[in-house]
Amino acid sequence: QVQLVESGGGLVQAGGSLRLSCTVSGRSFYSMGWFRQAPGKRREFVANMNWSGGRTAYADPVKGRFTISRNATTLHLQMNNMKPEDTAVYYCGGSGRWETVPSQYDYWGQGTQVTVSS
Q1: What is the per-residue pLDDT across 75-98, written as a single tens digit (0 to 9) for each?
Q2: How far is CA 102 from CA 13, 16, 36, 84, 92, in A?
Q3: Under a CB-based contact definition with an 8 Å cutoff, are residues 89 and 111 in contact?
Q4: Mean pLDDT, residues 10-32 taken together
Q5: Distance (Å, rounded) from C-alpha 61 to C-alpha 29?
Q6: Residue among 52, 48, 47 at smallest CA distance from 32
Q7: What does each C-alpha distance from 89 to 11, 16, 51, 70, 96 come to in angstroms?
Q8: Cβ atoms of 25 and 73 closer than 8 Å
Q9: Measured between alpha carbons, how far is 114 from 88 in angstroms, rounded to an integer?
Q10: Does residue 87 or residue 71 have the better pLDDT?
Q11: Is the pLDDT of residue 72 over 90?
């Protein structure tokens, strides 16, 4: 059974930091990514990485503030200098290809709420 389980969300003040984690079990993926969805908006790409080679990509709004990384079984997203517009439910996803489009991801976690207060 494939499972992706996110953790680490919460409430933080603007300028603060949070670290999200996504523990993966049941299979491996070519790439894994973080996406977010704010109320009334579509799910959007945040960052992804190639699981074996360390290739990474970031959405423009988070470049220089967020860092994606991994260890053997867990994907992380370190979020620094957070802004109120970062408020959303954050999801990790797994894909068999290098993708930044949510529809191309095959597996998803349940999501974790991140709220940034001004």
Answers
A1: 999 999 999 999 999 999 999 999
A2: 28, 27, 10, 23, 10
A3: yes
A4: 96
A5: 26
A6: 48
A7: 12, 17, 23, 20, 23
A8: yes
A9: 6
A10: 87
A11: no
Strands 18-25 and 31-37: unpaired
Torsion of CA 41, 74, 5, 96, to 10 degrees: 70
Is the pLDDT score of 45 beyond 80? yes
Say if CB 56 and CB 100 are below 8 A apart.
no
Q: Which residues pair with 33 in a beta bridge?
A: 48, 93
Q: Left (φ > 0), alpha (ψ -120 to 50) or beta: where does 86 sit?
A: alpha
Contacts of 115 (CB under 8 A, 6+ apart): 10, 11, 12, 87
- The yes-or-no verdict on residue 53 having pLDDT over 80 is no
